[in-house]
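FORM 7B: Structural annotation worksheet

SECTION A. Query
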Amino acid sequence: MRKLFFLVLAAAIVSCQNSENKENTGGQESTAVPGPVPDQSDMVDSSQFTSIEWLDSDKDYGKVNEGQKVEVAFRFRNSGDKPLVIFSVTPTCGCTAAEPPKEPILPGQEGVIKGAFDSNGRIGTNNKTIHVRANTKNSMDHNLNFKVEVEKKK
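SECTION B. Predicted structure
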């Protein structure tokens, strides 16, 4: 599991270097889409798929001072009847770090995807996305979005 986390982290950093300038676009939505992340989700038995209900998937964290780290969190509930497994959590920018829950989320239980945004050098409006891959019906891919307005240090 640790190897997978570090592999996903490395992929996020590399992809961020290519899309970072597009992401900090003064309020415009980014068109950067993460590429496929190697994980074990392709080997999942579809009979083990479940459903996810995002309790919040879009957040606005308002204004922060440059250099401040912003803790982000997205809550969800396993609304299906099988354990929910989050295979990967991939931020689209190196200024954001996030990690999946360490254990499967049982049916009816809630979980959180936690992350952090580093506002250093990111003056202006920042629209960021965290790509989540899970054993969910209809689509295994989910996007969590957040916005932060970074003000220059005084």
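SECTION C. Observations
Helices lie at 2-23. The two ends are 42 Å apart (CA to CA).

SECTION D. Sign-off
Analyst initials: ____
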